[in-house]
Design brief:
The protein is an alpha/beta fold. It is built from 13 helices and 12 strands. The strands form 3 sheets. It has a 7-stranded parallel β-sheet, with helices on both faces. The radius of gyration is 19 Å and the shape is globular. The N and C termini lie close together (about 10 Å). The mean pLDDT is about 95. InterPro entries: CDP_4_6_deHydtase (IPR013445), NAD(P)-bd_dom (IPR016040), NAD(P)-bd_dom_sf (IPR036291). GO terms for molecular function: CDP-glucose 4,6-dehydratase activity. It holds the Pfam family GDP_Man_Dehyd.
Length: about 350
């Protein structure tokens, strides 16, 4: 199969409005867009973690404008979007953590549901927007603990407030697409990815960041659900899918105004304990291992996979890095960080290496 590529020439000079640009995925996407010559305006709250890739990488300077704002504030969001006058809107701002959604369901629903309504409405009445991509999650599916991957036409749902709120975000996007965008020339798609990993992720209650923090401190890592299976993938894999989908939507293909899965190979859906053991073996310094703890009863899915056949067949997209490559890249990035490397350059080196991959 001839793989479709992220086209640098397409993105050069494109005006992009990106929400959630201070987060982990948003920071990597911002750097990729900037490296291709896109004119990016970011809109987000301040970086959600300390430390953060956005701050340590001095990413603020790569934007046409980096706006500090909340997607729940419609007037502020509309003002920033109108000023940017973008052709492409990529919506990534969210409350992204399952466990935090139990602690603060109101904020989770407000951000993930009304934030989606606000970006759709602001883009609808803007006049310059040609493409809207809403980035949701693999957790938007009604999880039945199947051992096979969910397809884009499976029922949406969500046991916890986070998963439910992202299912709602998908439904809102579909309603706006059918009610307001058909026949307008504005193309709207959604993207669903798995558990992304990579350098610069310091989010709370996430396995890889917790591992990295424990490694760096020489502390024992604690894991909650060692048997839980997740679709792990390097952050650049789904980002390549988002960029490719935006290209197709911009070219005016109504057939692409759908939901799309951008997950890893089926063989890269692995249990938590497997990930811990692999990462431990790749870390070059001594560390005290891990301990299984089961201190609470918060529900977390035990099995979750994505079927990406549609993206592979209709977009000619495929995950390029294996899970082993993704883990290696994460370790190498972390070691570069500890050595005081320029983090912008380090990220761009990994982006270039990813793009240079010609084989699966």
């Amino acid at each position: 199969m001839n793989l479709a590529i992220v086209d640098k020439d397409f993105w050069a000079g494109k005006k992009v409005f990106l929400t959630g640009h201070t987060g982990f995925k948003g920071s990597w996407l911002s750097l990729w867009l900037h490296s291709m010559g896109a004119e990016v305006t970011g809109y987000s709250l301040s970086a959600p973690t300390t430390p953060s890739l956005f701050e340590l990488g001095k990413l603020k300077d790569i934007f046409v404008e980096s706006v500090s704002g909340d997607v729940t504030d419609f007037e502020a969001l509309k003002k920033a979007l109108d000023k940017a006058n973008p052709e492409i809107v990529i919506h990534m701002a969210a409350q992204p953590l399952v466990r935090r959604s139990y602690q603060d369901p109101i904020q989770t629903y407000n951000t993930n549901v009304m934030g989606t309504v606000n970006i759709m409405e602001a883009a609808r009445i803007n006049g310059s927007v040609r493409v809207i991509l809403n980035v949701t999650t693999d957790k938007c599916y009604e999880n039945r603990e199947w051992h096979w991957g969910y397809r884009e036409n499976e029922p949406l749902g969500g046991y916890d407030p986070y998963s439910s709120s992202k299912a709602c975000s998908e439904l809102i996007t579909s309603a706006y697409r059918q009610s307001f965008f058909q026949g307008t020339g504005i193309m709207v798609g959604t993207a669903r990815a798995g558990n992304v990993i990579g350098g610069g992720d310091w989010a709370e209650d996430r396995l890889i960041p917790d591992l990295i923090k424990a490694f760096m401190k020489g502390e024992q890592i604690q894991i909650r659900n060692p048997e839980a299976v997740r679709p792990w993938q390097h952050v650049l894999d789904p980002l390549s899918g988002y960029l490719l989908l935006c290209q197709r939507l911009y070219e005016g293909g109504e057939e692409y105004t759908q939901a799309w899965n951008f997950g890893p190979r089926d063989s890269d859906a692995k249990p938590v304990e497997w990930i811990v053991n692999q990462m431990s073996g790749k870390w070059p310094y001594e560390h005290p291992g891990y301990q299984v703890v089961r201190e609470d009863h918060i529900h977390e899915a035990n099995m979750l996979k994505l079927d990406c056949s549609k993206s592979m067949n209709e977009l000619n997209w495929t995950p390029r890095w294996t899970l082993d490559q993704a883990l290696d890249a994460t370790i190498q990035w972390t070691l570069g960080y500890l050595q005081g490397r320029n983090l912008q350059e380090l990220c761009k080196e990994q982006i270039a290496a990813y793009q240079a991959e010609s084989k699966i």
